[in-house]
Design goal:
Largest sheet: 2 strands, antiparallel
CATH architecture of the largest domain: Up-down Bundle
Order of helices and strands: HHHHHHEEHHHHH
Mean pLDDT: 73
CATH topology of the largest domain: Four Helix Bundle (Hemerythrin (Met), subunit A)
Shape: globular
CATH class of the largest domain: Mainly Alpha
């Protein structure tokens, strides 16, 4: 599970960095898009990721319309979630283009945030409810970003989550550990925006952003070692 959580955290940072810096992969041609959609529907995770990354500019485009209405960081996070949901639920047989459908999903997520009286509970919290399936069952972010699992696999993930928390404690400074736990609700609390974490820790939001990136980069280096094993 720790590898999955780290993947999600890393992707969120990548999305936000690309949007903020206006450095996106080029748009896909119609032929490339059709090929990737077909592959993604057959379970090709690389194809799915390419569809997401090559449509990041749509998040930036929609977010610009609402700049100033809410914190930019939160608009980007919510818009990115809309992008992921769009790629996973798009059906070309319904007549709309992927870009049109994706922009609508992104905007819907942002409007839900703006209309809510409470803080939008996403920021890649794995247990957060983000929608419903065709049978009306609640879907969480982990449902959208991972494959179905049987009961034994879910039990294993529960065990691994405890190991992951110990792994964080052992390899991060107290400040880095606290930042990730607060930002992503890793110990069961509600995930917080960088501004909220900064207020709790009495430091600037830009400093929280640097701590967060440094912590995730550090963890990536550790798990990519050939001798790495989570105990």
């Amino acid at each position: 599970m720790f590898e999955f959580i780290l993947y999600v955290l890393g992707k969120c940072l990548f999305f936000c960095a690309a949007i903020a810096g206006d450095t996106f992969p080029r748009p896909l041609t119609d032929k490339e898009e059709a090929k990737l959609l077909a592959a993604a529907r057959n379970g090709d995770k690389d194809a799915r990721e390419k569809l997401i990354s090559h449509n990041l500019r749509l998040v930036a485009h929609v977010v610009k319309k609402y700049r100033g209405a809410y914190e930019n960081e939160d608009l980007i996070s919510v818009g990115t979630l809309g992008l992921i949901k769009a790629v996973d639920t798009y059906n070309e047989d319904k007549g709309s283009r992927l870009a049109t459908y994706t922009a609508r999903c992104i905007e819907n997520e942002i409007l839900m945030l703006l209309r809510s009286n409470k803080k939008y509970r996403n920021n890649v919290s794995l247990s957060d409810v983000v929608g419903t399936d065709k049978d009306g069952n609640e879907l969480t972010l982990i449902d959208l970003l991972s494959d179905d699992e049987n009961v034994l696999q879910k039990v294993e993930k529960t065990v691994q989550s405890g190991k992951f928390i110990r792994f964080l404690r052992d390899n991060l400074s107290d400040r880095e550990y606290k930042t990730l736990v607060l930002r992503y609700g890793l110990t069961g609390g509600a995930p917080l925006a960088q501004r909220e974490v900064a207020a709790l820790m009495k430091i600037s939001r830009s400093y929280i952003s640097r701590i967060e990136k440094k912590a995730i980069d550090k963890l990536k280096i550790i798990i990519n070692r050939e001798d790495f094993y989570l105990t």
